[in-house]
Amino acid sequence: MNKLQQYLKDHGIKVNWLAEKIGVSYTKVVDAVSGRTKLTAELARLIANALGCSLEEIIDD
């Protein structure tokens, strides 16, 4: 499990809520969260802002 998946799980956040909150398609967010596609810098910033967390909390080293 990557940091983003763990963060969402720990905070009880659903991917569909996150996708709607940041205005990005559900599929794109699911793919990025699952690691199927690479998390872009732009998407990572949108997610971190929506979650109110730092990039370090959601991006693997």
Describe what you observe in this structure.
The chain is an all-alpha fold and 61 residues long. It has a single domain, classed as 434 Repressor (Amino-terminal Domain) (Orthogonal Bundle), CATH 1.10.260.40. The chain has helices at 3-10, 15-22, 26-34, 41-51, 55-58. It is globular, with a radius of gyration of 10 Å.
β-strand percent reads under 5%
Tally of alpha and pi helices: 5
Helix content: 55-70%
Radius of gyration, whole Å = 10 Å
Q: In this structure, how is the largest beta sheet organized?
A: none
At the fold tier of CATH, the topology name is 434 Repressor (Amino-terminal Domain)
Termini Cα gap: 13 Å
Shape: globular
Poorly predicted parts: none
Which structural class best describes the helix and strand composition?
mainly alpha
**Going by CATH, what is the homologous superfamily?**
lambda repressor-like DNA-binding domains
Number of domains: 1
